[in-house]
Amino acid sequence: xxxxxKMPTNGIHQVLKIQFGLINCESRYLTAxxxxxxxxxxxxxxxxxxxxxxxxxxxxxxxxxQSDGRWALQSAPHRRFFGGREDQLSCFAPSVTEGExxxxxxxxxxxANLLSVSRRRYAHLSAHEDEIATDSNLPWGFKAGKLAVKDxxxxxxxxxxxxxxxxxxxxxxxxxxxxxxxxxxxxxxxFTAANGRYVSIRQGVNVSANQDEELNHETFxxxxxxxx
Length: 228
Prior knowledge:
Main location: cytoplasm
Number of strands: 19
Subcellular location: Cytoplasm, Cytoskeleton
InterPro entries: Actin-crosslinking (IPR008999), Fascin (IPR010431), Fascin-like_dom (IPR022768)
Distance between the termini: 36 Å
Largest sheet: 7 strands, antiparallel
Helix content: under 10%
Pfam families: Fascin
CATH topology of the largest domain: Trefoil (Acidic Fibroblast Growth Factor, subunit A)
Family: Belongs to the fascin family.
């Protein structure tokens, strides 16, 4: 069984929500059926019903990792393995065969840091961009969950003046003024109608496709309803 680790964090939030799909030996995804709390392995692609969320138990593991990266899923009380094809899935196999191995397809685009276990330092690209060195004390400049941005001259970005204009060049060490929180934001989009005009709310609350240029009134925030 794999060594137990704490759930990973992204330096800002407490725990990363790891979502993924599971692919069997026939290149089909494990799928949650709409009714009856049943599962099958018939889907050819990753969509909403094929996405699963990892809930990690610090005391025990039901995932047996293989040398090729695939997972074997083991029943905690019965120690049998889960697998099968199409709608013939079960958790009765006493040992792992091809039918009980699952390939993990991440349903996210993670950003990760590499921490050397022996050196206790983070890996990063060198200034000359010709090698990766494992000598950084901080991942990506994070400090107490904060982020500092440094320019090519080694100076940090900070807000200055009455309007808080962002400039670099004043400090070569990150202080309170140079630290930022990195927050997730919804994507912003513009919509173009069949007439080639941008959809806009320039006239008020009414939406019309009558603008030739893309400005604030033509920009919309895209929010995903994960339940649908």
